[in-house]
């Protein structure tokens, strides 16, 4: 259900949500239309510049929110609550029990951090003496007013829960929109927060598509929007909202294996998790692995080790998962484009999963890696294809030889999004280079 002004409401129409594992409709959520958003617009526009609280106005709310955080953390320590959220996350964004549990642990620990006085401490001011008698400067952490949080599907609780509460901590009234494939998790989290004392009017929550919420932001004059998602939407929001946005958009992450080979089993294990955890569906996923020739020698065989680890992942255990934004056909078509790069070869994977029931709008593919030589990245069209961010279990393995470090540096400097997965080396000269 939608939440606006402290009341849970339905929309005129509903949107079917299918089970990512078998395609069956198992949820019907509100499909809020343009003619139903006026209450959200009025609520957002009516928030005063001073917010719901600030260092001078309603400071007791800082204390109240700290108490809510403490109570919510205690609630999430209950085994039945912990298991409920883990299972709920698994239903809408299938991932292993351990990975889903990691979200619960992160949110619970964060709530503990802001228990007691820490919400109030977060609003700490800064003072500076003036340069003449009677003058001083004090900087206060003030709210924006009516703000919004927009979050994607891949972390159904952690991103939206932490970001929405953070907005409220500093006195903002927040309107939250989560990708409706997984928004039920945030709805249940809000209901839990209400049960431990969060005022129902602090956060509005809406199920709708992007254009509808874009209209809410424009007509409601959102004073700040925190967006996590695709670069395309981030660019649009930056223009539409005239820069009143904070963005966490695309991520093409690389890892470089240096000339000094060490802890091979651990490096392979970590690289496998970085690339294929939750089937690579996160902006921190490892997308490209640069391999010094010492790592590809027969006695080390990092590629073989990665292939064996990837081969142990299974849909049954959810260590390999449905791909929620790249259908199988689109995934394999992109893989073929990378394989068309001169010198490219399939390292492992590259097939649709056998005997699966994942619906066709989602992807069901083996963890996949395509191997290319470093020289291939010198060709602009090949570079453009190889550095596409694929939100799925896919990475590009790049071979480079001793003396070709400059080619590696040139390649990573050409990437538009500098998000580092890691540099694996204990060689200070190599790291500093």
Structure in a nutshell:
This protein is α/β, with parallel strands linked by helices and 433 residues long.
Please characterize this protein's 3D structure.
This protein is α/β, with parallel strands linked by helices and 433 residues long. The protein folds into 2 domains: 2-248, 3-Layer(aba) Sandwich (Aldehyde Dehydrogenase, Chain A, domain 1), CATH 3.40.605.10; 253-432, 3-Layer(aba) Sandwich (Aldehyde Dehydrogenase, Chain A, domain 2), CATH 3.40.309. 38% of the residues lie in helices and 20% in strands. Strands 14-15-16-13-12-17 form a 6-stranded mixed beta sheet, sandwiched between helices.
Instruction: Give the terminus-to-terminus CA distance.
Output: 54 Å
**Superfamily (CATH H level) name of the largest domain:** Aldehyde Dehydrogenase, Chain A, domain 1
Low-confidence stretches: none
Q: Provide the CATH topology of the largest domain.
A: Aldehyde Dehydrogenase, Chain A, domain 1
Defining key terms:
single chain, 433 residues, alpha/beta, Aldehyde Dehydrogenase, Chain A, domain 1, Aldehyde Dehydrogenase, Chain A, domain 2, 2 domains, six-stranded mixed beta sheet, 20% strand
Give the arrangement of secondary structure elements.
Blueprint: E1 2-4, E2 7-9, E3 14-18, E4 25-30, H1 38-46, H2 60-76, H3 79-92, H4 97-113, H5 118-122, E5 126-129, E6 136-139, E7 146-151, H6 158-169, E8 173-178, H7 183-195, E9 203-206, H8 210-219, E10 224-228, H9 231-240, E11 245-248, E12 253-257, H10 264-276, E13 286-292, H11 302-311, H12 328-339, E14 345-348, E15 368-373, H13 380-386, E16 394-400, H14 405-414, E17 419-424, H15 428-432
Parallel strand pairs: 7-8, 7-10, 8-9, 10-11, 12-13, 12-17, 13-16, 15-16
Antiparallel strand pairs: 1-2, 3-4, 5-6, 14-15
Helix pairs in contact: 2-4, 3-4, 3-7, 10-11
């Amino acid at each position: 259900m939608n939440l606006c002004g402290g009341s849970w409401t339905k929309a005129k129409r509903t949107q079917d949500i299918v089970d990512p594992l078998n395609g069956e409709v198992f949820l019907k959520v509100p499909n809020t239309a343009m003619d139903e958003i006026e209450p959200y617009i009025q609520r957002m526009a009516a928030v005063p510049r001073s917010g719901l609280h600030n260092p001078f106005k309603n400071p007791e709310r800082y204390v109240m929110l700290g108490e809510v955080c403490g109570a919510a953390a205690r609630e999430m320590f209950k085994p039945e609550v912990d298991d409920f959220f883990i299972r709920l996350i698994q239903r809408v964004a299938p991932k292993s029990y351990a990975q889903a549990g990691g979200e619960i642990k992160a949110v619970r620990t964060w709530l503990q951090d802001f228990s007691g006085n820490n919400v109030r401490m977060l609003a700490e001011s800064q003072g500076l003496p003036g340069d003449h008698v009677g003058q001083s400067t004090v900087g206060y952490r003030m709210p924006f007013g009516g703000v919004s949080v927009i979050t994607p599907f891949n972390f159904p609780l952690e991103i939206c829960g932490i970001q929405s509460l953070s907005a409220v901590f500093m006195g903002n009234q927040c309107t939250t929109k989560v990708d409706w494939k997984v928004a039920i998790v945030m709805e249940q989290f809000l209901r839990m927060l209400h049960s431990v004392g969060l005022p129902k009017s602090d956060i509005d929550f809406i199920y709708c598509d992007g254009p509808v919420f874009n209209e809410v932001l424009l007509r409601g004059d959102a004073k700040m929007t925190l967006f996590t998602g695709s670069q395309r939407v981030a660019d649009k929001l930056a223009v539409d909202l005239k820069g009143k946005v904070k963005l966490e958009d695309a991520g093409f992450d690389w890892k470089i294996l240096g000339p000094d080979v060490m802890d091979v089993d651990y490096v392979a294990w970590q690289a496998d998790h970085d690339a294929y955890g939750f089937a690579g569906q996160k902006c921190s996923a490892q997308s490209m692995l640069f391999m010094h020739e010492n790592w590809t020698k027969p006695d080390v065989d990092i590629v073989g080790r990665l292939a064996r680890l990837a081969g142990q992942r299974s849909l049954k255990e959810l260590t390999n998962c449905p791909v929620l934004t790249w259908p199988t056909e689109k995934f394999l078509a992109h893989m073929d484009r990378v394989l068309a790069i001169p010198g490219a070869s399939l390292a492992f994977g590259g097939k649709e999963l056998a005997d699966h029931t994942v619906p066709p709008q989602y992807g069901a593919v083996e963890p996949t890696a395509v191997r290319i030589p470093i020289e291939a990245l010198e060709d602009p069209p090949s570079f453009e294809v190889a550095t596409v961010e694929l939100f799925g279990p896919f990475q590009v393995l790049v071979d480079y030889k001793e003396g070709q470090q400059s080619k590696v540096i040139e390649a990573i400097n050409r990437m538009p999004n500098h998000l580092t997965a890691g540099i694996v080396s204990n060689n200070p000269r190599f790291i500093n280079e």
